[in-house]
Specification:
Layout lengths: L2 E4 L6 H13 L6 E6 L4 E4 L5 H4 L2 H6 L3 E4 L7 E3 L3 E8 L8 H4 L1 H9 L5 E4 L3 E4 L2 E11 L2 E9 L4 H7 L4 H6 L5 H4 L16 H13 L14 H15 L2 H4 L8 E7 L2 E10 L2 E9 L8 H7 L2 E2 L2 H8 L5 H4 L5 H9 L6
Parallel strand pairs: 1-2, 3-4
Antiparallel strand pairs: 2-6, 3-5, 6-10, 7-8, 8-9, 9-10, 11-12, 12-13, 13-14
Length: about 350
């Protein structure tokens, strides 16, 4: 498939995410688009997460770290100048949630640089040996998809534990004590002659591998026009510079249940009065192609019983919201507190 590259030297995470959103949702392409960005220190929150519960707010403020919510699901990640972010934007959704296929060019590129034992693990992580260097996510719009991820090249890994509040159950399932013990930078695994590469030079090596060229001048590129930038700035203001989008208000609730499915953790918050669900909210690092708020709205005014909840979910394809392996009955059992957290 024909590919085109979008050069980008911007470090503002709000603008970088706005560019990516524009490329997926508003710009018409017949070819696949390759887009890279290096963010200044920031925490990027998954679409379905409760921001304030994912970050160490005091540390974030003290160190002037930006907090921005992205469009895709998955978990919170820390970015800095030693982290390279890649984005593949495809004109077809044929490979939606097929992380193995869509991350294969990245795996090959890092192997080409001389790093051994690079592989996909679990649902969306890339590892060197048993240590993670890349977390990946996807989302779909208008039958097109973006697959994007981090590449820890020479990042400050000491900040990760300080900036993020990591779900202990997530660490427990992986048999580890901290995020830092689980992750690694790519740089130390490179051959010695390549260990002086900057993050930008690393990006260029990845590009040459993806496009199978010896010189960057051989890569077909597209440069944003002034008209493109008008759209990008509008998206940045509407979403990524908007406090309500990045943080959002914490809803009132009096009932809370959580369960880790194979597709990720789902945390449900309910405001129940009498025997009726007045409000419902879902949080977590799960992936879905639909906005989970639709299910939350469908549950408003529902009697708090399995029969009533199943009736409300009857015509809703829950797998599109929480992942392919999650069933209606499991969602109902989660809401009722019938699932034991794993």
């Amino acid at each position: 498939m024909k590919m085109i590259y979008i050069p980008n030297e911007e470090h503002n995470p709000r603008l970088n995410l706005a560019m990516e959103t524009y490329l997926l949702e508003e710009k018409d392409w017949d070819e696949s688009v390759v887009f890279f960005y290096i963010n200044s220190p920031s925490v990027i929150i998954g679409r379905n997460q409760n921001t304030i519960e994912e970050i160490n707010e005091e540390y974030i403020k003290e160190h002037h770290i930006d907090v921005v919510r992205r469009m895709s699901g998955g978990g919170a990640v820390y970015h800095d100048f030693g982290n390279l972010n890649f984005s593949f934007i495809l004109p077809s959704s044929d490979h939606f949630m097929d992380f193995e296929t869509l991350t294969a060019p990245i795996v090959k590129a890092i192997r080409d640089l001389g790093v051994e034992d690079v592989h996909l693990s679990g649902r969306n992580d890339l590892l060197i040996g048993d240590r993670k260097f890349s977390g990946n996510a996807m989302y779909k719009k208008k039958n097109r998809i973006v697959c994007h991820g981090t590449l820890l090249f020479n990042s400050d890994l000491t900040v990760v534990n300080d900036a993020l509040k990591v779900d202990p159950s997530k660490l427990k399932t992986k048999g580890i004590r901290s995020v830092k013990s689980r992750v690694t930078n790519i740089l130390p695994h490179l051959p010695k002659k390549k260990q002086n590469l900057t993050t930008e030079q690393f990006r260029d090596e990845i590009l040459k591998s993806i496009f199978e060229v010896a010189d960057l001048k051989e890569i077909p590129i597209y440069v944003f026009t002034n008209e493109d930038w008008k759209h990008i700035d509008k998206i940045a203001q509407e979403y990524y510079e908007n406090w309500d989008w990045n943080y959002g208000a914490s809803p009132d609730f009096n009932t809370k249940y959580k369960h880790r499915f194979p597709t990720g953790s789902v945390d449900v918050r309910l405001l129940i009065k009498g025997n009726t669900i007045e409000q419902a909210h879902f949080y977590g690092d799960f992936f879905g192609s639909e906005d989970v708020e639709k299910i939350a709205k469908a549950l408003e005014g529902c009697a708090y019983s399995k029969e009533a909840i199943m009736d409300r979910l009857a015509d809703i394809p829950v797998e599109l919201f929480f992942g392919s392996s999650v069933t209606k009955e499991e969602v109902a059992d989660l809401i009722l507190g019938n699932l034991v957290e794993k």
